[in-house]
């Protein structure tokens, strides 16, 4: 089996105590190896999901009968849009634990596989009632997404309306719920309300999990220029200034040349006049 490099500072002790408890069923050396790979999955899942997926496959080959490993493999597959694999891993983890916590993400996998109607059906199953409040909010988000996938934009707006949305208290899910509602409102042309809810999402988004600020700016017609673009704009402005200076210099040269020409012509005219005058005087003298 091909192993992946593990940094020296990764010991495996970083994993959650519940996961560590599950790994006690394995021989010590194997448990340590699996733990290290799971730590790498967690560390890389957001910044390098492809790499996290590779570590999850190693852990899966080492300990496929451990529920935490199947769950980690599921999330790693989900992060790289391998929804069929993710669903299979989540189902396996759920069979092992009997826990319904993965129900919303399983439904979202159905959406990812192009089966929003199945995701919507899952939102109406008894398992949803067994979820905690955070899980029920997550299920509501998935159901609203499924409605939009099916072209039911107005129904998506209604799906998101809930006590959690109306609450003024800020919970871990608040920013995402408000953001989803704002986006759903915008999809049905309710722009003023959408702006209000994007602002509310931004207010609750302490961790920067959404791009609510960008969406607000977009609605307000504000354009952001990144550092690279700013440099390009500066270069372009400098080029314009150089061109303007060149044009002015060229105009000055043309004007100076014209003045010289005019002066020369004036001198020639004076010379001609002087010659004519001299001739006239000679004629008079004769």
Shape descriptor:
globular
Class computed from helices, strands and strand pairing: mainly alpha
* CATH architecture verdict of the domain at 1-98: Alpha Horseshoe
Radius of gyration: 37 Å
As a percent range, the share of helical residues equals: over 70%
Unreliable stretches, pLDDT < 50, 5 or more residues?
Answer: 277-283
What summary fits the major beta sheet? none
Percent range for β-strand residues: under 5%
Number of strands: 0
Q: What is the string of SSEs from the N terminus onward?
A: HHHHHHHHHHHHHH
Between the first and last Cα atoms, what is the distance in angstroms? 127 Å
Number of helices: 14
What is the highest CATH level, the class of the domain at 1-98? Mainly Alpha
The name of the CATH topology of the domain at 1-98 is Serine Threonine Protein Phosphatase 5, Tetratricopeptide repeat
Query: What number is the mean pLDDT?
Result: 87
Structure, explained:
Among the domains are: 1-98, Serine Threonine Protein Phosphatase 5, Tetratricopeptide repeat (Alpha Horseshoe); 238-286. It contains 14 helices and no strands. It has helices spanning 17-23, 28-44, 49-62, 67-79, 83-97, 103-112, 116-123, 133-149, 153-160, 163-166, 174-187, 191-204, 212-219, 227-285. The model is unreliable at 277-283 (pLDDT under 50). Residues 250-259 have a biased composition (Acidic residues). This is Tetratricopeptide TPR_4. InterPro entries: TPR-like_helical_dom_sf.
């Amino acid at each position: 089996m091909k192993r992946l490099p593990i940094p020296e500072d990764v010991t495996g002790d970083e994993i959650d105590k519940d996961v560590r408890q599950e790994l006690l069923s394995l021989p010590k050396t194997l448990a340590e190896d699996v733990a290290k790979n799971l730590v790498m999955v967690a560390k890389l899942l957001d910044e390098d999901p492809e790499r996290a997926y590779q570590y999850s496959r190693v852990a899966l080959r080492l300990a496929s009968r451990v529920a935490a490993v199947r769950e980690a493999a599921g999330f790693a597959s989900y992060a790289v849009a391998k929804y069929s694999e993710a669903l299979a891993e989540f189902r396996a983890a759920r069979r092992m634990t009997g826990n319904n916590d993965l129900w919303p993400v399983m439904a979202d996998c159905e959406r990812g596989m192009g089966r929003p109607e199945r995701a919507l059906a899952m939102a109406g199953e008894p398992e949803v009632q067994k979820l905690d409040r955070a899980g029920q909010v997550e299920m509501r988000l998935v159901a609203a997404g499924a409605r939009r996938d099916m072209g039911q934009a107005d129904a998506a707006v209604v799906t998101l309306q809930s006590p959690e949305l109306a609450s003024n208290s800020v919970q871990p899910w608040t920013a995402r719920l408000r953001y989803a509602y704002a986006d759903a409102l915008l999809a049905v042309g309710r722009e003023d309300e959408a702006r209000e809810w994007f602002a509310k999402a931004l207010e609750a988004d302490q961790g920067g999990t959404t791009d609510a600020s960008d969406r607000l700016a977009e609605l307000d017609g504000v354009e952001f220029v990144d550092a690279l673009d700013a440099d390009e704009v500066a270069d372009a402005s400098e080029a314009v200034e150089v061109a303007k200076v060149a044009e002015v210099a060229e105009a000055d040269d043309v004007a100076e040349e014209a003045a010289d020409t005019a002066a020369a012509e004036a001198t020639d005219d004076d010379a001609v006049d002087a010659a004519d005058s001299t001739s006239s005087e000679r004629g008079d003298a004769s």
